[in-house]
Hints:
By secondary structure, the protein is mostly helical.
Amino acid sequence: MSCPTSGGPPMNTDISGIGVRLSFYLQTLFLGCLTIRSPSLDEVAGAFCTLLATNTGMAVTALILGFKPTPEISFHDALVVFYLLNISWFTVFFALPSRVRFPGRGNLKMLRMLHVFSVIQSYTLFAFALAMLCTAETFGSNPRCNANAVVVLFPPFPAIKRGQILFLVLTGLVVISYTALIVRDISRPTKRLIHRTLKVVLRSKPEQPPTDDAGGLETTPLTGSITPHLATTPALASASAAPEHVPLPKYIPLSERATPYDPNIEWMDGCVQSPHHSNIVGSGGDEYRASYPAKSFRTIGRQSFPVAVWTVLCLMSVFNTFWDNGVRKLPASLPPV
């Protein structure tokens, strides 16, 4: 049987409406800007947590609504969610290494929390993508319309068969590569601990010079007199060689240690924004106008409002960051808070 509607079924605006899409686009853009310019770990961590929670909640919601006995979203809705989550996941993946700008033990707990949340978000997204792609032909509330879905990865092609195979292969490669990175990150501290333990065990004890008694008295060969002798240990040697006073690094305010203009700000901002805007123009508009009735683009779902509130909060953080720091050059390593 053919699809009862032209192109595709009406979309569920609560999960794939225009308001939700705009919120995703803006949140990822604001996170990139904060990653580049913000000197505050709290601001960057807040933006990360907001986007991680949004991505995880969207993936879980799509899984629940798509695999209910009576599905509430169509395959076209799932394609929109898949596209939005791809943009957000790549933004988080490439922005998360910026945490190295915030050294210090006080920040270690927050950085570990961000890393754990990003891993949970990633595997939730992978589960949704694989489940949706493996059941693409029968997924959703209107499986008869699934064959009409079109993906615009610059040239348009059908989402079923060709698109399904392509994205299954790409998703599988991403999952394998990401898992390998996680295993490597986990194994590094273990290897360092094993190496440090073996080094301590195998380290030979330094030989002490012979003495006449336990009190540390040494006999002079020529005169036969007894002189006190103090055994030199590595700890004492290092203590005697150390300077009496080690000056602590002086804290310099950000406004004083920053240069008037950072020449790298233009290309860094371009690296964040250019792929983002090209993805929106190349895939976001034409892909779903070909699959949905035009009137559905004028509807804003209920889920858009809480996401819009988070987007406004991210916008305020970006505004405050650029208001305080402008385009001044930030130090490569910021002092711990």
